[in-house]
Design goal:
It holds the Pfam family CinA. This protein is an alpha/beta fold. 40% of the residues lie in helices and 28% in strands.
Length: 414
């Protein structure tokens, strides 16, 4: 099913408003196996909006419009769509009642233009707005000699769009466009590996994919693979997904951190520590407390994190922690000593220390250097890793080193 989004609003084209609706629509529809093929942005102009509808109807099966359903004269989406469909607009009595209740509770009298928001297609289906005034709509257009096209109109106000999309639109699509198939998605997460390497390993499978399909999404050193299958039953679709997932795990098991759309390396590490009943303390320099923040953000009530400190592994600081013998040692040696010292000071099972030697290019506003990560496990020899930091902004490098530290910790704990 080819799906297209049309975002309506001159303010979007002029840059005064950022279009957050289209990405959210795309992400929500992926949950039910609907992928976006095209996206258009068009201003509040009847001729250009009609041209956008014509183009979309020629190449897509499902067209979702967002914006232009309000009370002003430049809110023209329903009017242009009705003319394009060859249908007429009528007032939806239920939406009108919701509007009247809204103003009555506030002791206000609405402007006549507000009632434009209760208009809907005579031969379409209305989506009532539970958190606003403008109703949405769905319309099935079937012209002679052409396949049926489904059009959905949503408000442009983000929270109104979001509520209608989840409560009305997704069930509508599943009932009217996915009756003979069940679509399931499975998300796999990998950390400490780049998107290009994953893409290379899966290149042949992605090139030949039919059902299930595979899509990659990347963050710094974190890759999510979405596998989506369609079948006659949910059970069959899930089985198809798992078969592909098992094949992928054979290639990437070392970097796998779990299933789920929202799985992160932080969740993975916290689960490992909690399952093994291990406690952790941290000493952070370059990352400035980012690792501790990300872990405690997973669960503030956990007993896993005993404490930590932000400390640069330089001569002055190591003297403060009773490590004067490291005055003339390298940053790598100081970091390893700090991991052990931190574990002992906080009386934890694990001490994690992170620091970096960096230089900053003021002309390019980028930083480069080497990051150092050390893990001290009670009863075991400390292990330290050097990680090259290529030319990027300090914020990105901190995020990368944070992920590398958590991945290195997970490897030591497994």
């Amino acid at each position: 099913m080819k799906t297209e989004i049309i975002s309506v609003g001159t303010e979007l084209l002029m840059g005064y408003v950022i279009d957050t609706n289209a990405p959210e629509i795309a992400q929500e529809l992926l949950d039910i196996g609907v992928g976006i093929y095209y996206k258009q942005t068009v201003g509040d102009n009847p001729e250009r909006l009609e041209a956008a509808l014509k183009l979309a109807s020629q190449r897509s099966d499902l067209i979702i419009l967002t914006g232009g359903l309000g009370p002003t004269q430049d809110d023209i989406t329903k009017q242009v769509a009705a003319e394009f469909f060859g249908d007429e607009l009528v007032t939806d009595d239920k939406q009108l009642g919701l509007m009247n209740d809204f103003f009555e509770k506030r002791g206000r009298k609405p402007d006549e233009n507000v009632y434009r928001e209760a208009l809907t297609f005579k031969n379409g289906q209305t989506f009532h707005n539970a958190v606003g005034l403008a109703c949405g709509a769905a319309y099935k257009l079937k012209r002679q000699g052409e396949s049926a096209k489904h059009f959905i109109l949503l408000p442009g106000v983000p929270h109104e769009m979001r509520t209608m999309l989840k409560n009305e639109v997704k069930p509508y699509i599943q009932e009217n466009m996915q009756q003979n198939e069940k679509i399931e998605s499975l998300f796999m997460n990998f950390n400490g590996i780049g998107e290009s390497k994953v893409a290379t390993l899966l290149d042949e499978r992605i090139e030949a994919q039919t059902n299930p399909t595979i899509a990659l999404y990347a963050k710094p050193r974190h890759v999510t693979i979405r596998i989506t299958a369609s079948a006659a039953s949910t059970k069959e679709a899930k089985a198809l997904n798992q078969k592909v997932a098992d094949d992928i795990l054979n290639m990437l098991s070392e970097n796998f951190i779990g299933y789920g759309e929202n799985q992160t390396v932080e969740n993975h590490v916290m689960a490992l520590l909690e399952n093994k009943q291990l406690t952790l303390s941290l000493s952070e320099g370059f990352t400035s407390g980012l690792v501790m923040y990300s872990l405690t953000n997973v669960s503030e009530k956990t007993s896993v994190i005993e404490g930590g400190r932000v400390v640069k592994a330089n001569k002055a600081k190591v003297r403060k922690w009773g490590l004067t013998h490291l005055d003339n040692k390298s940053t790598e040696e100081r970091v390893e000593a700090l991991a052990l010292k931190t574990r002992e000071d906080f009386n934890t099972d694990i001490g994690l220390s992170i620091e970096a030697d960096t230089t900053f290019d003021e002309r390019k506003h980028v930083m480069s250097g080497t990051g150092y990560i050390s893990v001290s496990l009670k009863g075991k020899k400390s292990q330290t890793k050097a990680y090259p930091l290529s030319q990027k902004s300090p914020a990105i490098l901190k995020e990368i080193l944070k992920n590398e530290a958590l991945a290195f910790l997970a490897e030591r704990v497994k």
